[in-house]
């Protein structure tokens, strides 16, 4: 029986280098495929990167309320609320689509709350159904908050758009016309 020919040291190094290159390229290809999944499960970002790391400016948002798959999702920087809703499987059958600003930019750490049935009725009575999302609040919703008028509501929307979204209500302290008492009302009526 004929034996396997022995490989020289240089041949082993070449084959080892080729195997390592194939493994690295394969791992990179697999990671790239994970980032482009159409609709991953909630908390899918945890496997992509270690805790506390920021991958190329992506935003991590919590999508809650009347969506098919509520959860935490990683989206590319510059994404809009509509992208987050789509990533969460789309609207649930009872979603109040007109009560959320789908064009608002997302901010890292933001919660996108999709209202369910009955939200429009509560809003039309002037009563607030609960905290609204700072990242998706409309000028009309902001105007209903005590101490905010239409001018300040527009300033908040402009400030949010100029800064690519807001991750904290405290950032609104930088908006002209918002003082300490207004900040208290905002904290009670808004969520990041």
The major sheet is characterized as: 3 strands, mixed
- CATH top level assignment of the largest domain: Mainly Alpha
The mean pLDDT is 75
Total number of domains:
2
Task: Give me the CATH architecture of the largest domain, please.
Answer: Orthogonal Bundle
Helix-strand pattern = HHEEHEHEHHHE
The name of the CATH superfamily of the largest domain reads: Photosystem II 12 kDa extrinsic protein
Low-confidence stretches: 35-53, 120-128
Would you give an account of this structure?
With 192 residues, this protein is α/β, with parallel strands linked by helices. The chain folds into 2 domains: 7-36; 45-191, Photosystem II 12 kDa extrinsic protein (DNA polymerase, domain 1, Orthogonal Bundle). The chain has helices at residues 9-35, 45-48, 81-87, 119-124, 139-143, 150-162, 180-189; strands at residues 59-65, 71-75, 111-114, 132-133, 190-191. It has a 3-stranded mixed sheet with strand order 2-1-3, with helices on one face. The chain is elongated and about 90 Å long. Mean pLDDT is 75; it is low at 35-53 and 120-128.
């Amino acid at each position: 029986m004929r034996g396997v020919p022995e490989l020289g040291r240089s041949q082993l190094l070449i084959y080892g280098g080729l195997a390592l290159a194939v493994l690295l390229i394969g791992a990179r290809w697999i990671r790239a495929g994970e980032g482009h999944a159409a609709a991953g499960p909630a908390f899918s970002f945890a496997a992509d990167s270690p805790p506390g790391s920021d991958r190329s400016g992506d935003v991590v948002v919590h999508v809650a309320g009347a969506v098919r798959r509520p959860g935490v999702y990683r989206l590319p920087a510059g994404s809009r609320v509509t992208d987050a809703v789509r990533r969460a499987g789309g609207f649930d059958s009872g979603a109040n689509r007109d009560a959320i600003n789908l064009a608002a930019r997302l901010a890292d750490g933001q919660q996108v709350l999709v209202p369910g049935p009955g939200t429009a009725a509560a809003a039309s009575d002037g009563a607030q159904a609960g905290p609204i999302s700072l990242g998706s609040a409309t000028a009309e919703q902001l105007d209903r908050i005590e101490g905010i008028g239409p001018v300040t509501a527009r300033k908040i929307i402009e400030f949010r758009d100029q800064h690519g979204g807001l991750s904290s209500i405290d950032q609104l302290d930088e908006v002209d016309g918002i003082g300490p008492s207004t900040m208290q009302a905002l904290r009670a009526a808004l969520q990041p």
